[in-house]
Amino acid sequence: NIEPTKPKRLATHKQPEQHNTPATMFKKFTQAESVSGTTLLKASVVRGIRTKIVEQLPNIEPFLDDIFPKKSSVVMVKCKERISLLAINGEIKFFQHYEKAIFPTLRLLHQYPTLLPHQQVDRGAIKFVMSGANIMCPGLTSPGGKLNDADIDTIVAIQAEDKTHAVAIGKMLMSSADIAENNKGHGIESLHYLNDGLWNLDTRALTLR
User: Fold this and answer.
1) How many CB atoms lie within 10 A of CB 160?
2) Which backbone phi and psi does 154 adopt, to 5 degrees?
């Protein structure tokens, strides 16, 4: 007898992209090995980037002229693995991967904490987040965590229990509703975390103006 073929279960959540993520690259990111060059951007390109940042980070608008003045000198720092850093008037404030979304650096987020919506992990998850690991759902749903409403792919600041400043920046791998319902697996992809290669980048040796 031939048994009927069982139907394949459809994936209910978006699968992570297969190429390396910024987190894995920033983990081993060094100025000597990772930075390939710098380019001073033309005014027309700068205007386009400024517009794109406002579209992607609507909370930046009240602070835009402080963070990204209209007549800024903007240098793109090109790095391996398709990472680009944006230096505005000599200070690296944003990074980009595969020419897709533009993310604020943690240093900028610490200056302007409301740029991104927040999620919070419990105390037990901190050491894993600080090593570049993705954020597991139970770390967000436990009593020390705090799960706020957010859709899949939303860029979020990752706070930690009893800590003042964000410890990482990540991207929602599923919605907050799905995280609460399933409570297992990876809930947020880590993109940039405290004391990674980007955080520790010594910009003094780079030509950023």
Assistant:
1) 22
2) -65, 135
